[in-house]
């Protein structure tokens, strides 16, 4: 496994450099295709050969690697420092200097790491997500970015730099999931911060620059907590390894709380959710990468790794409350959104909140649910962001109200869109199954926190049905005089279609083998940590299997029925006299009315500023209690 891990961390840098140097579209496309194929193939290979291993540690025995990592970390800090100076942003300057000081103090504490890298089943699951979903996003970006600059003439970014950042992002994510040395993990963690900062600010408009610095400030704040945790562990315990920190349990509760804070910021939980919402100004492949396979998944990955240390203590309870409140309030706010990318963004924040809540509970069952959610959310949300991005390039709008008669105008994209949305809130897809199991897991806690989380999951899930229902209704709406418009979908390139259809196939395949994923991948990992696991019980597996059969049977049944009885769109009775094929009808007093198909957004019921302000205050209090409890325990 030494070679595949080294390859996955180092190889993406090679295509990244070539992409930075080439301006030829054909050559860029070839490099992306070959690089993506190599990364995906090695990711699958690494998963296959390491699948049966519990946890293995790796020491590459490279002299001077610590100094190389430190040098790269300092160079990265210098770049961010310079950009902050250029744009006269002074808060990141202070945060960068503070981080560097704590990292240097940790380096000079003489704490050493004999086993700097490792892998376990969870790392390998993340490897598949990064290596397959992440590379498909890169492939989609080839055709997307060609059209993007035609439609967004205000964008001043360079496509060469954009693709360079995508592959560096993948390299950093592999580094995060394989690093046992906390200093290495911190370096890769900061690389994702820098890449997201640069990608969000890609267009170099004033809005993009402001949003990129907001993301930088919040993630640097989490990075500062991370660096303090490393310094504390190194100076007090002479420990800089993640696994040793986890083995220390309550003795290391303060650094665990600091690392949990870093995970909360990276996962865009309240009060830090605004940086991920601001990321929507970036091109859609950036959004897909940040929301599905990288960046925010780094945060929940770390929290789930920390979860055994969070079980049955105040720090864990507060982490769970931050996640649950974020899930509930982000779902409520999302009901009012009509920007499709923002709907996806709030949905991401909400679902990450559910994963964070599971990590905070820290039981075998909640960790099982959390890993399941990571898998299914990564697959579904990547498909949705890429579909919305492709749609925007076709109709030049992200407004849901511009999606009228979507499936009549763009039938193929409509099918892809429906699969993505169904994956998020329709049984038997994994997100729904995971929420069902999450409710059961928190009920089993038999505590006040567990009860509160269950209530918040129930109400948040109800809001989820509202906003996904509104979007899917828009996409499935039809009218008789709206034929397909081949010119709209004709602009979609072959690489975009390949990526989108690959996502659909992966979505359906993952859900069809859902019980097998639990039995052979997740349950062994959870059992190796907790000594027990409460996976999919016999009755649950039977229900899921039955629903899977139905989801295959029903489309076949409808297709056969359609062949026997051809369907047609009928005029709808509107309590008046219809004109112009359902578009206009005559009502009382002979007045003519235009038929409209618009959603309710409930702005007066769910007041976004009020809900957001309340969530920020609540979650800030929970975080304050979390850090305070850890400090008091040490005293």
Question: What does this protein structure show overall?
Answer:
The chain is mostly helical. The chain folds into three domains: 2-536 and 600-634, no CATH class; 537-569; 574-599, no CATH class. The chain has 26 helices and five strands. The chain has helices at 2-10, 13-21, 25-50, 65-86, 91-107, 121-151, 159-178, 182-200, 206-237, 242-247, 253-266, 274-278, 284-293, 296-310, 314-334, 340-361, 364-395, 406-409, 411-425, 430-444, 448-476, 486-490, 494-512, 514-530, 538-564, 608-634, and strands at residues 55-58, 117-120, 577-579, 584-586, 592-594. A three-stranded antiparallel sheet has the order 3-4-5, with no helix packed on it. Strands 1-2 form a two-stranded antiparallel ribbon. β4 (584-586) and β5 form a beta hairpin. α1 runs antiparallel to α3 (25-50) and α19 (411-425) runs antiparallel to α21 (448-476). The chain is globular and about 85 Å long. The model has no long low-confidence stretch (mean pLDDT 87).
What topology emerges from the helices and strands here?
Layout: H1 2-10, H2 13-21, H3 25-50, E1 55-58, H4 65-86, H5 91-107, E2 117-120, H6 121-151, H7 159-178, H8 182-200, H9 206-237, H10 242-247, H11 253-266, H12 274-278, H13 284-293, H14 296-310, H15 314-334, H16 340-361, H17 364-395, H18 406-409, H19 411-425, H20 430-444, H21 448-476, H22 486-490, H23 494-512, H24 514-530, H25 538-564, E3 577-579, E4 584-586, E5 592-594, H26 608-634
Antiparallel strand pairs: 1-2, 3-4, 4-5
């Amino acid at each position: 496994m030494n070679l595949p891990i080294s390859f996955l961390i180092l190889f993406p840098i090679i295509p990244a450099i070539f992409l930075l140097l080439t301006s030829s579209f054909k050559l860029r496309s070839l490099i992306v295709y070959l690089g993506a194929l190599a990364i995906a193939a090695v990711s699958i290979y690494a998963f296959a050969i390491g699948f049966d291993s519990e946890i293995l540690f790796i020491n590459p025995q490279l002299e001077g690697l610590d100094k190389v990592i430190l040098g790269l970390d300092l160079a990265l800090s210098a770049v961010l420092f310079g950009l902050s100076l250029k744009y006269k942003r002074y808060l990141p300057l202070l945060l960068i200097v503070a981080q560097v000081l704590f990292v240097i103090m940790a380096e000079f504490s003489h704490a050493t790491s004999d086993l700097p890298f490792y892998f376990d089943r969870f790392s390998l699951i993340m490897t598949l997500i990064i290596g397959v979903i992440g590379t498909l996003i890169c492939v989609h970006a080839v055709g997307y970015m060609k059209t993007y600059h035609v439609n967004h003439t205000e964008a001043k970014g360079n496509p060469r730099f954009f693709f360079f950042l995508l592959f560096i992002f993948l390299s950093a994510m592999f580094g995060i999931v394989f690093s046992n040395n906390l200093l290495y993990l911190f370096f890769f963690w900061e690389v994702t911060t820098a890449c997201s900062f640069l990608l969000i600010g890609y267009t170099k408009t004033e809005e993009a620059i402001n949003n990129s610095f907001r993301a930088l400030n919040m993630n640097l704040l989490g990075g500062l907590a991370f660096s303090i945790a490393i310094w504390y562990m190194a100076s007090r315990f002479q420990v800089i390894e993640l696994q040793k920190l986890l083995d220390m349990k309550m003795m290391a509760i303060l650094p665990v709380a600091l690392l949990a804070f870093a995970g909360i910021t990276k996962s865009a939980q309240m009060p830090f959710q605004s940086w991920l919402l601001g990321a929507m100004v970036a091109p859609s492949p950036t959004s897909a990468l940040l929301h599905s396979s990288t960046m925010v998944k780094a945060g929940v990955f770390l929290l789930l790794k920390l979860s055994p240390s969070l079980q049955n203590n105040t720090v864990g309870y507060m982490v769970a409350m931050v996640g649950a409140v974020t899930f509930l309030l982000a779902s409520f706010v999302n009901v009012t959104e009509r920007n499709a990318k923002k709907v996806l963004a709030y949905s991401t924040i909400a679902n990450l909140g559910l994963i964070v809540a599971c990590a905070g509970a820290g039981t075998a069952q909640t960790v099982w649910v959390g890993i399941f959610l990571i898998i299914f959310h990564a697959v579904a949300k990547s498909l949705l962001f890429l579909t919305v991005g492709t749609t925007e390039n076709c109709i030049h709008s992200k407004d849901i109200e511009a999606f009228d008669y979507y499936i009549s105008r763009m039938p193929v994209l409509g099918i892809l869109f429906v699969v993505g949305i169904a994956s998020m809130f329709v049984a038997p897809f994994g997100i729904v199954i995971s929420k069902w199991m999450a409710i059961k897991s928190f009920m089993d806690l038999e505590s006040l926190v567990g009860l509160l989380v269950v209530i918040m999951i129930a109400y948040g899930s109800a809001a989820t049905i509202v906003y996904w229902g509104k979007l899917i209704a828009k996409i499935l709406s039809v009218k008789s005089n709206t034929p397909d418009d081949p010119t709209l979908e004709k602009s979609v390139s072959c690489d975009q279609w390949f990526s989108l259809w690959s996502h659909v196939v992966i979505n359906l395949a993952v859900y069809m083998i859902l019980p097998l994923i639990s039995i052979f991948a997740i349950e062994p990992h959870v059992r190796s940590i907790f000594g027990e696991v409460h996976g999919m019980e016999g009755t649950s597996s039977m229900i899921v299997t039955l629903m899977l059969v139905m989801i295959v049977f029903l489309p076949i049944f409808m297709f056969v029925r359609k062949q026997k009885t051809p369907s047609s769109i009928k005029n709808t009775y509107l309590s008046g006299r219809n004109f112009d094929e359902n578009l206009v009808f005559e009502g009382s007093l002979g007045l003519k009315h235009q038929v409209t198909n618009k959603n309710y957004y409930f702005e007066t019921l769910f007041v976004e500023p009020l809900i957001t302000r309340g969530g920020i205050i609540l979650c800030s209090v929970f975080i304050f209690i979390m850090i305070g409890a850890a400090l008091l325990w040490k005293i």
